[in-house]
Design brief:
Radius of gyration: 17 Å
Shape: globular
Number of strands: 2
Structural class: mainly alpha
């Protein structure tokens, strides 16, 4: 996980240095940072993961779970907003700041959510990390630990005090738990990949239609 974050950061630096916050540079930034997760997961799986990562076309029954999981997760951002309004906790995210005034980039992220972000992150955190942990501990513990690790690269981009970081971390941790459960129950990585991509894409579409 650390290797994926570091590698993604190293790959993304040239995009920011050369292009600033242009749409081309931001697209390259997201692609290269996510590529770090995919490359790290692939290297680890080839060298140290003894079990094959199962990726199959979902059945109709599984497709229902994909949609239900993605839609159910949409309640989490609403809960975070309610808690923020109630407690007065002010929070921010670096990636959202980068997207300010760039509706085109938000639409790009809708596409990247499905074709890159979901696949890369789920391959590393569920397929590789959770899969490896499951070999040495119970499935429930593996899901929880993989979900906690999933929070770390996201929390790097959160701004505000400790309360803000903890509040925002509810979203990736909850997503990790749901995606981890899907993978454990169905032994098919395509479910968390598609559910994660659909969830992210829906959030970006909501941002596009409400903010621009």
């Amino acid at each position: 996980m650390v290797g994926g974050t570091v590698l993604g950061g190293i790959l993304a630096v040239p995009a920011l240095l050369l292009g600033g916050t242009s749409i081309v540079a931001l697209t390259a930034l997201f692609i290269l940072s996510e590529a770090g997760y995919a490359i790290t997961g692939w290297i680890y799986a080839r060298r140290w993961l003894s079990e094959t990562i199962s990726i199959k076309i979902p059945t109709k029954y599984q497709a229902v779970w994909i949609v239900a999981s993605a839609l159910g997760m949409l309640a989490i951002p609403l809960i975070i907003e309610i808690v923020s309004s109630t407690t007065g906790i002010q929070y921010g995210r670096v990636d959202q700041q980068l997207l300010t005034g760039s509706p085109e980039m938000v639409l790009v992220l809708v596409v990247l959510s499905v074709v890159l972000i979901g696949p890369a992150e789920e391959y590393l955190f569920r397929g590789v990390i959770q899969g490896r942990l499951s070999q040495s501990m119970g499935a429930s513990a593996a899901i929880v630990i993989a979900s906690l690790l999933f929070v770390l690269p996201h929390a790097i981009g959160y701004t505000g005090g400790v309360g803000a970081i903890v509040l925002l971390s509810i979203a990736p941790f909850s997503l990790g738990l749901v995606m981890g459960a899907l993978y454990e129950w169905f032994n098919n990585l395509s479910l968390p990949i598609l559910a994660h991509g659909l969830y992210n894409a829906t959030l970006f579409l909501t941002t596009y239609f409400t903010a621009f």
